[in-house]
Amino acid sequence: MLSAPIPQQMREKIDDFAADFSSGALAEAAERLSLAYRSGTPPRIDTPLARAAYLATRMPATYGALWAAARELPFEPTTWLDLGAGPGTAAWVAPCPATLVETNPTWIDLTPATRIHADLTRLPPLDPHDVVSISYALNELGPKERDRAVLDAWSLARRALLLVEPGTVEGFAHIRAARTQLLALGAHIQAPCPHPGICPMAGGDWCHFAVRVERSKLHRRLKGGDLSYEDEKFSYLLALKEETTPPWARILRHPNTRSGLIELRICTPEGARPDKVRKNDPRWKAARKANWGSPWEPAQ
Ligand SMILES: C[S@@+](CC[C@H](N)C(=O)[O-])C[C@H]1O[C@@H](n2cnc3c(N)ncnc32)[C@H](O)[C@@H]1O
User: Fold this and answer.
1) 55: Cβ below 6 Å to ligand 1?
2) Banded pLDDT at 282 (limits 50, 70, 90)
3) What pLDDT sits at residue 112?
4) Would you state the pLDDT for residue 120?
5) What percent of the chain has pLDDT over 90?
6) Could you tell me if the CB of 167 is within 6 A of ligand 1?
7) How far apart are the C-alpha atoms of 18 and 25, rounded to whole Å?
8) Where are the domains of the chain?
């Protein structure tokens, strides 16, 4: 599985911020956040304690998801605008200066960035940026606001719009709706879809991926459990203004490896289907290296 390299400096800043609170208070605040997310009501992150709990338990995971999705960018951006920025997660992913739009004025910046205090559904005039991202924020908007946000974000994107949502049925539904909306606006989908046709994900199936994130000592203290990592599930969409040649297919699940056989589930222009790779297949080596979410190639 793809592993996200969490910047050491980000970890240190999170630890510093959390140091003002006892583990017990942080664990309770983290539990309140989890309960709110699980119930589908975005939590109010408006106290220093709630912010510290978000930073400690969620920021590394949302960083991992945005980092994994941003790997699909086919160019190096020089400007980046993030809408619904929270603590500024996108500023750690962007390889260039980032501008962060956030409605909650109390969020602290953990990294240098330009901050704009604004509602992303009623944006002030902004310059276009090479990349516009919305990460784990569409799910905090109502349906009409979401459509509006996607439309505005697309018009502010000079080259690419990157959307990331939780890898849940609901998160994927937002990504799928945005895909339909963006295709109608003439967008070229770079990832994860290998085609602009009808999305084959239906009947309880949803398109999502996973990234592995190493758990800090603080995370383990607050969330319990023995594992040294967590797997963050996410859905995403990378839409480009310029024409693109997407890969032939995309791997939709963990490859299932048995002796002499690797079984894949892939999305292709003809729909989602299994693909079997045996040892004598020229794609065997590539299949052994392939991950859930990797692009995939056709049999010769
Ligand atoms: C779950 S946090 C995600 C933060 C960050 N994007 C990340 O990936 O870590 C969602 C953020 O969206 C912000 N948000 C929600 N509705 C918003 C709106 N209408 N305008 C601007 N920001 C909004 C919330 O205040 C919160 O900081």
Assistant:
1) no
2) very high
3) 86
4) 96
5) 89
6) no
7) 10
8) 3-240, 249-296
- Tokens describing residue 213: 């994130």
Q: Which residue has the higher pLDDT, 203 or 250?
A: 250
Residue 203 reports pLDDT greater than 90: no
Q: Which atom of ligand 1 is least distant from the CA of 101?
A: 21
- How remote is the CA of residue 168 from the centroid of ligand 1, in Å? 18
Per-residue confidence band for 56, with pLDDT thresholds at 50, 70 and 90: very high
Quote the tokens at residue 157. 């994107």
Can you name the CATH fold of 3-240? Rossmann fold (3.40.50)
Tokens for 242, please give them: 């310029």
Confidence of residue 11 (pLDDT cuts 50, 70, 90): very high
Q: How far is CA 206 from CA 171, 212, 273, in A?
A: 9, 19, 14
Residue 273 neighbours by CB under 8 Å, 6+ apart: 265, 266
> What single-letter amino acid sits at 290?
A
Distance CA 172, CA 156 (A): 23
pLDDT at 275 over 90: yes
Instruction: Ligand 1 pocket test: pick from 120, 148, 164 the residue with the most ligand atoms within 8 Å of its Cβ.
Output: 120
Cα–Cα dist 192/287, whole Å: 18
**Binding site membership of 84 for ligand 1 (Cβ less than 6 Å):** yes
Verify whether ligand 1 is closer than 6 Å to residue 57 (CB atom): no
Kindly report the average pLDDT of the chain as a whole number.
95
Residue in 33, 57, 92, 140 to alter for ligand 1 test, most ligand atoms within 8 A of Cβ: 140
Q: Report how far residue 277's alpha carbon sits from residue 257's, in angstroms, rounded to the nearest whole number.
A: 10
